[in-house]
Amino acid sequence: MDKRRKKFFYALIYAGAALLLALCLTLCATATYTQPEQSTTFVLNAGSESQALPVGDLVLPSAMTWYVYGLVCAFVGGWQAARLLQRNGWALLAVSALAGIAGGVWAATGALYAAVLLMGGEVWAGAALLTGLAGLVFLAGLAGLVCARRRISLSIALTAIAILAVFAFLIWAARDRSTNLTGLLSSALLRSVPIALAALSGVLCERCAVINIAIEGMMLTSAFFAALFGSVAANIWHWPSWAAFICGLFGALLAGALLGLLLAVLAVHFKVDQIIAGTAINILAVGLTSFLSSRILSEFQNLNNPGILNRVSIPLLSRIPVIGPIFFEQNVLVYMLFAVMAITHIMLFYTRWGLRTRAVGEHPRAADTLGIDVFKNRYVNVTLGGMVAGLGGAFLILGSVGRFDEMMTAGKGFIGLAAMIFGKWMPFGAFGAALIFGFADALQTRLAILQVAIPSQFLLMAPYLVTMIALAGVIGEAIPPAADGQPYEKQ
Amino acid sequence: MQASPEKHRVGLVTDVGRIDDGTFNQYAYAGLMRAVQEHDLEVKVVETVASTHYESNVQKLIDEGCAIIVTIGSTKGAAVERMAMRDPAIRFILVDYEPLPESRNVTGLVFAEDQAAFLAGALAGLVTQKDKIGFVGGMDVPPVRKFHRGFEHGLAYTNRRAELVHAYTESFTDLAAGQEAAEELLAQGVDIVFAAAGKSGGSALQAAAQQGAWVIGVDQDAWATVFEKGAAAGADRLLTSAVKRVDQAVYWAVGQAVSGKLEGGVHVFSLANDGVGLAPYHLADPAVSSEARGKILEVTETLRTGKVRTRVGTQGEALVEGFLPRLMAWNWQSVMIPFLAIVTALIIGAVFIAAFDPQVWAAFGTSFFAGLARAWQSIVQAYAALFEGAFGNPARIASGLRIYFDSGDTVLLMRAIRPLTESLRIATPYVFAGLAVALGFRCGLFNIGAEGQYFIGGLASVFVGYSLKGLPWFIHLPLSLGAGMLGGALWAAIAGYLKAKTGAHEVINTIMLNYIAYRLADYLLNVGGPMARPGDQRPISPEIEPSAYLPQFFPADPSNRLNVGLILALLAVVVVYWLLFKTTLGFEIRAVGANPRAARTAGINVSRNFVLAMALSGALAGMTGAHDILGVLHYMPNAFSAGYGFDSIALALLGKSHPVGVLLAALLFGFLRAGAQRMQAPPASVPIDIISVMQALIIIFVAAPELIRLIYQLRAPKETAETVFTRGWGNV
Q1: Nearest CA among B131, B238, B249 for reference residue B195
Q2: Number of CB atoms found within 10 A of residue B678's CB
Q3: Among residues B177, B179, B231, B189, which one has the least CA distance to residue B213?
Q4: For chains A and B, what is the number of CB pairs under 8 angstroms?
Q5: Which of A14, A169, A464, B78 could serve as a FRET partner for A336 with CA atoms 20 to 30 Å apart?
Q6: Banded pLDDT at B730 (limits 50, 70, 90)
Q7: What confidence tens digit (pLDDT) does each residue in B468-494 have?
Q8: What is the DSSP letter of B552?
């Protein structure tokens, strides 16, 4: 880590500690000024058609939850400050520790007060369940991130800030009201699927050192062809819906593979600057799909109606409360994401192909010397990456909205790239990062429904801001494949 | 009696002299040893004591079964080549000798002496104080001539006043002659001596250095070959040496030969493959100013990419300079390829237009030929509309002109040239946007966020435009323009700052900033928002004050919106050109773009240049927004986007990141866009998105010229100038 980055990281830790302590104060202050009887209701049943066993609603006393969060914030903030100040002298350490303890004591007193006040409700069971949930969405995804790095404390602290802020905010937004938490998490997963697939596509390409900035265009084109092929099968040939779905999926994968191949030809064979080649493909995709959609889809409406996949419940697993509806009552494409992710991980790290791919990404000349065909490896990987992006495009149509619109990807491909970097070029890490972006997206919709007094435009900015912060905060420690972006010249 | 060659046995025959002679022999040996370590080879070395032993030494290695034989020295090359013909199974690698092109198992490694000497000459021109420089040559043979001419031209490149005097020793070994030559030159008042005369030249260097002149060595680093690693007197006067990287060449050639990929014939080692260069400055280091270093870096880079040539022929002759020869030598392909790219894109566009026309499908339903006819018809219709929309209908312009001359009535003429002025009006913002991206490219930054900067620039200029009232136009207009530039600059600088400080890639960040800018504009302009027009149900800003309008060229016809922005755009082209190529700042930006690592080593603040280049790029993009607000719309609508973000990339690529190229590309895009608007209307009714398809194709073809060469069977030029646009995820 060079000097300027080091400096920036200390600044980040400072900021993190300060933010946490500030958050602690805000939470405690909010709690002090709320009526003790105010509470937030989280509905945990997914809906009437869900097969999950019904559970009771989670009713959280707003004030008390804030106190508990305040305590956690104070602890993490004090810990961060201590960690940082250890390097800067013991006097400062003592000051910060005192500050941390003071904040903690204040929060603890508040929490105790609230707990005593509310003793005798269903509070404790609810609080336990909520903690479990928070852990589920974020920590499960972040496990990949954590595995991928040695020095984890900074990212954990940042994550803690995010989780705490988000949930405290949600509780505040939904005070005196009820909101469906399972639905929120389920929609977060659904929204993270295209981002995760984009990120996986990026992982496949960049592990062999080809930067794929064309994921956006690949997804857009695939979405178009998924809609077209699926509609032709369903509405012209009158195939059963499952066959139409397969036809649509085939169209998407084909389009993705072809664009992946085009990128490979440009970047590997012609050694075009990879970012330029990717941008050209993006422009091509926008022009092509807009042109064809105004020429074909807008004139023949039944060619843009492939239908949406039904949810498929996995027996037994789907009956688990909360977890079942989130993970095991989704459509086939979501399960395909899980499968692709697992397969990619296993292939990359436990097979000969994966070892070769990584060798090509780190040191193509050495790989070539050992008899690995660098060009072939890159062609295969980039084409596969295109197909995974194609799966993302298919999901947008068949698994989500069911019709093609111009520019419908709206930057998901780029956010996927950010997720890939955030996830340190690891499949599970990328998925974890995608979950965060998906959650931010779902939360913004939910807050709009709850009519929070913040203009919706600012909520819509959130995922993009998160991406920028993630990039600034993490890339310093995230190391891309060594040869990333460089065309290979055979000697 | 000849043994069959062992695959992994490599032989080396030295030139007359020992293996550790500190020059060719030693470096060739070092290169060979590097290859040996890498490929696990067995080495046989024979030292040549006298030139008469040379051929028998080579024969000895053949008899010992060497599969690869490296020989050093040009004088005996022809003899070795004859021996090679008898043993086609053995690979011969000849250093410094040019074999016949048809020989299959002989590879000659030759060096671009002229380039090394050009660099040395450039340095001499920067260091000299008396503006008089001496050259000591051995015999008048091609390599020496190449050194002489290259040095001369390099000197002239950096110092037009400097004069070059020369003396030939007519020998490579006569030490006394070298000394005499040096004395003679010093007597003429030179303060730098460059010698290319073997041992004789070495003695000339020593003599000159001892008398206090700067000296420049040749072939290998004279620090080792002449001045005994600083032990000899005068070592502190050794400026540098024009070196041939013999080790590099031998290492490469042996490696290729082992893997069976070495081709016969001549291999030239030049700056492009690090085969030649300048030696370190050693003790002279403090005497070379940092400006001189920077200039040498720049000259190296321009020579490497072929932008500057040494103007020295293969036999050391000076290539004539003049208009016609220069025109002949000019790289026509650099113009040809964009042109062919556009033509190809138009052809593919035509295929699209015909293939997705419902009327064509219907016609194919009746008969094949009817379909073809209809396809042709729809293509012609579309491109005729494109042409008329871009330039106007020639017949109408002619009749308009006639009426104007007859009666002085301009109404019809104005109407007829409307498409032309409209094209220019559309081209104006393209010039700014293209320049924005091109400037980023020059610094190795990919500003994909021109769109967001355009939004922010528009917001800033519209705010100043409507909120300040009662100002005279000469204050209000510049203020609004400045606000637009500042807004764009600040917005882009965020991405530049993040890149400089954290290494976060500007591509992702500028895209994210784009989306944030859309949302911000949406929030500000939405009905009831802070910048919305009061009492209006549309999400638009208030009208700007007329004092902030960019004046129109034809005030009599308000619908003709061509305005002073066009002149500003032309001015911007000049300013960006001047900034990039005539100022220190521009030099630093380009140095960072060419190689950030080298730039940092040379003492350039890379971070500062990233932020600055990004801000300048953003200012130009903001100017685009300001032009559209102040010159065309006079208010800001919520849906303001015109796709500048992607178009500007295409423009910068098509213009090869050169301001004038961008201007031409912008004119082309202006014509295309204006024409496409006509094409979109009946009777052609082709969706305007076809233009995006064509733009993407143009980018692909310009970025991958091999594709165009493949299609049109053009031959690749010898020197390919490569522009670095971006690199990885910002690991500087």
Answers
A1: B238
A2: 19
A3: B189
A4: 164
A5: A464
A6: very low
A7: 888 898 999 999 999 999 999 999 999
A8: B
**Pairing outcome for strands A329-331 and A311-313:** antiparallel
For A250, residues 6+ apart whose C-beta sits below 8 A from its C-beta are A229
Q: How far apart are CA B716 and CA B341, in angstroms?
A: 16
For chain A, which residues make up each domain, given as ranges?
A: 3-176, 186-474
Q: What does the DSSP 8-state code read for residue B273?
A: G
pLDDT at A489: 77
* Residue B29 pLDDT exceeds 50: yes
B650 touching A (Cβ < 8 Å)? yes
Ranges assigned E (strand) in B190-286: 192-196, 214-219, 238-244, 265-269, 276-278
Long-range contacts formed by B552-555: CB under 8 A, 24+ apart: B552/B631, B553/B421, B554/B414, B554/B421
Residue B76 · residue B44 · CB < 8 Å:
no
User: Contacts of residue B649 in chain A, CB cutoff 8 Å?
Assistant: 276, 279, 283
CB A266 to CB B700 under 8 A? yes
How many whole angstroms separate alpha carbon B537 and alpha carbon A168? 37
Position A31 scores a pLDDT of 59
HEC string for B552-590 = ECCCCCCCCCCECHHHHHHHHHHHHHHHHHHCHHHHHHH
Token code pair at residue A229: 């092929």
The rounded distance, in Å, linking the Cα atoms of A79 and A73 is 10
pLDDT in tens, B602-642: 888 999 999 999 999 999 999 999 999 999 889 998 876 66
**A296 interfacial to chain B (CB closer than 8 Å):** yes
A142 compared with B335, residue with greater pLDDT: B335
Rounded to an integer, the average pLDDT of B679-706 is 83
Give the pLDDT score at B1: 38
Reported ipTM: the value is: 0.72
Residue positions counted in chain A: 491
Contacts for B631 with CB less than 8 Å, ≥ 6 apart = B428, B549, B550, B552, B561, B563, B564, B565
Token pair 């922010």 is found at B456
Q: Which CATH class is domain A186-474?
A: mainly alpha
C-alpha B225/C-alpha B22 separation (Å) is: 5
Query: Do the Cβ atoms of B103 and B163 come closer than 8 Å?
Result: no
Q: Are A487 and A211 in contact (CB under 8 A)?
A: no
CA distance A71 to B684: 69
Asked if B634 and B614 touch (Cβ cutoff 8 Å), the reply is no
Residue type, B276: V
**Segments of chain A with pLDDT less than 70:** 1-38, 46-49, 56, 62-64, 66-162, 164-165, 453, 473-478, 491
Q: Which of A325-329, B192-196, B449-453, B571-575 bottoms out in mean pLDDT, i.e. has the lowest? A: A325-329
A475 at the B interface (CB within 8 A)?
Answer: yes
- Residue A287: C-alpha distances to residues A76, A346, B351 (Å): 50, 37, 15
Nearest to A287 among B523, B690, B725 (CB): B690
Facing A280 at nearest CB: one of B507, B509, B703: B703
Specify whether the CB–CB gap between A488 and B514 falls below 8 A: no
Question: Does any CB of chain B come closer than 8 Å to the CB of residue A468?
Answer: yes
Q: Is B195:B201 a contact under the CB 8 Å cutoff? A: yes
Side chain identity, residue B19 = I
Interchain pair B501, A464: CB under 8 A: no
- Residue B720: per-residue pLDDT: 45
The mean per-residue pLDDT over the stretch B385-413 comes to: 85
Span B171-207, pLDDT tens digits: 777 888 888 888 888 888 888 999 888 778 888 888 8
Q: Which domains does chain B have, with CATH numbers?
A: 8-111 (3.40.50.2300), 113-242+289-328 (3.40.50.2300), 425-670 (1.10.3470)
* Residues linked to residue A61 through DSSP beta bridges, in sequence order: A39
- pLDDT at residue B724 in the model: 45
